């Protein structure tokens, strides 16, 4: 396949946009080459500016769980757009999507909508600090919670890919309030709490990590965090921006039966439009302005087009209860297929999978945290990535990313992918 026009478009973009992209993970820095410019997408496929068709395993980094240009979402946006695109005044639609989200997710009474996952996590931490009247937070190395200053401390995927785990521009004053823990290591978290007694407002965690490849929590890890938080007056924040409405109707809280105090959403909840949200029980949410003193706002928050897309998405997921099992079955099928061909071709690898999230790591050791995720062989990954691109398969251009399986992917698409991986891995 040729990617000639994409390369030309990238050269033009580089002149006027830093690095030619509006979000660094889109660049092909870790794998080399020019990013693919998309013309359109439908179902499981992307159509690029050179006229190539690509099977998409990124799916806008998670939101398109039903596939691209899903008809009810597209229709909802078109109909709403005719009625005006933004008012800065309340609409009935906001209550409808809020009520539906609250009914789907366990353990939350109220939800507030924002414009991105970053905003959701940033606001959740402010709220936790306001509620507990404490300053520090614990985050895990390799977990990504958006690009707000307090989170850019060993922040996963994009930040690792670009070798700047601690970004310039984050002040020492901000960084000192973010304590860094090791994923899946409860003893480490206990020790941090002990050393910072009565100073920690919140532990924020991706309850299934997805930004250092896919790393499910070890047995007892989330339960242990819950207990430590309860024992020490700390709020537990589940960042379900990636996992919410993807791993189960009620997200990881439902899947593992562990309650968080505040939950953050993004990606799927917006149906492909810019949406984030954070939610909690009433006593916490009522601290937000205008009811309480914790300030949080947004000109375009609850935007009617975004809410219409999100509502159509959540309604579809709510009405089709079999979808999460169907996605998990497809992902398991892909897992088995990839495992078989990589083994046959004597490739050293580890595959992590949960629900519709899967990642392939080119190292034999179990991948359980940032350190083990970093051991994968990047030269092999580069060959893998570019080989698959030539076969018309698009995976994330970084070894630190999860693949997202969508309902639009057929078993023929999966078989085609497995065959392509067989072919490509013979060239390693
Ligand atoms: C994508 C992501 C974010 C950030 O969301 P944006 O909409 O990109 O700001 C936060 N947390 C997690 C777990 C994510 O995967």
Automatic annotation (TrEMBL):
Homodimer. The lineage of its organism: Bacteria, Pseudomonadati, Bacteroidota, Flavobacteriia, Flavobacteriales. One of its GO terms (molecular function) is transaminase activity. Belongs to the class-III pyridoxal-phosphate-dependent aminotransferase family. HemL subfamily. SUPFAM superfamilies: PLP-dependent transferases. Its cofactor is pyridoxal 5'-phosphate. Pfam families: Aminotran_3. GO terms for cellular component: cytoplasm. This is Glutamate-1-semialdehyde 2,1-aminomutase. PANTHER family: GLUTAMATE-1-SEMIALDEHYDE 2,1-AMINOMUTASE, GLUTAMATE-1-SEMIALDEHYDE 2,1-AMINOMUTASE 1, CHLOROPLASTIC-RELATED. It comes from the Bacteria. Keywords: Cytoplasm, Isomerase, Porphyrin biosynthesis, Pyridoxal phosphate. It is found in: Cytoplasm.
